[in-house]
Design a protein that fits this description.
This protein is of the alpha/beta class. It has 8 helices and 11 strands. The strands form 2 sheets. The protein has a 6-stranded parallel sheet with strand order 7-6-5-8-9-10.
Length: about 230
């Protein structure tokens, strides 16, 4: 390990690394086995053009090894959790998803992380160019709609707090305040019907994803080495 420099991954480099990952598999493995010898902690950085970063610290050396774009990492964690839920609860069904009030990074990451996604409705966020490019690459139809009820109509996977009265009775919802956690789903699939899962995992998913993004970036020679 080069201890004289720290690897800086801007949003573009972070995206490139993520394209070589299976985010849902990373998060599921972390819940089952933990994240070895490393941790990810949000910090504020003065790096121009990317003021909000996550620092990855090697626990053995207690040394900062990588700075990663926080916005994309946070979106990827949510998307990876949603993809893991879809894999375990929707059992290979085509996924019609709705995203309510999330960041553009979350929407983009969901397109990368969720195999089987056929349609994505978004409310409260304007899909930018990266989202539209990802939608075209994966052949997913993306619709920006005017209200939450329209977004969730017919959706079987919802990210964000929905109007529950209009949901499909067997929908899977990833929203704060849910009675379930991803670990509950992995241990034993809940009964069919409406399932609401809280995305909070104590930082475990972000930790695991940050480690794998760093390892992938090193392997592919992505990012820029900055002097300490």
């Amino acid at each position: 390990m080069n201890t004289d420099t720290i690897l800086y991954l801007d949003e573009r480099a972070t995206r490139q690394a993520c394209r070589h990952l299976d985010p849902a598999a990373v998060v599921v493995a972390a819940h089952r086995r933990g994240v070895p010898h490393s941790m990810a902690t949000p910090v504020v950085s003065a790096v121009p053009g990317d003021p909000r970063l996550t620092v990855l610290v090697d626990r053995w050396l207690w040394l900062d090894v990588c700075l990663i774009s926080s916005a994309y990492l946070a979106g990827l964690r949510v998307a990876a959790t949603a993809a893991a839920l879809a894999a375990h609860l929707l059992r290979g069904l085509p996924v019609t998803a709705a995203v309510l009030g999330a960041t553009p990074e979350t929407v983009e990451a969901l397109l990368h992380a969720l195999p089987g996604l056929v349609h994505l409705s978004v409310y409260g966020v304007m899909p930018g160019l990266p989202v539209l490019e990802a939608a075209r690459r994966f052949g997913v139809r993306v619709s920006a709609v005017a209200d939450a009820e329209e977004a969730v109509y017919g959706a079987n996977l919802i990210v964000g707090t929905p109007p529950f009265a209009t949901l499909s009775p067997d929908a899977v919802v990833l929203a704060a305040g849910g009675k379930l956690r991803l670990s509950d789903v992995l241990d034993e699939s809940p009964d069919e019907g409406l399932r609401v899962v809280d995305p909070d995992d104590g930082g475990l998913g972000a930790d695991a994803l940050a480690v794998e993004i760093y390892r992938t970036a090193v392997r592919l020679n992505l990012g820029v080495r900055l002097p300490r």
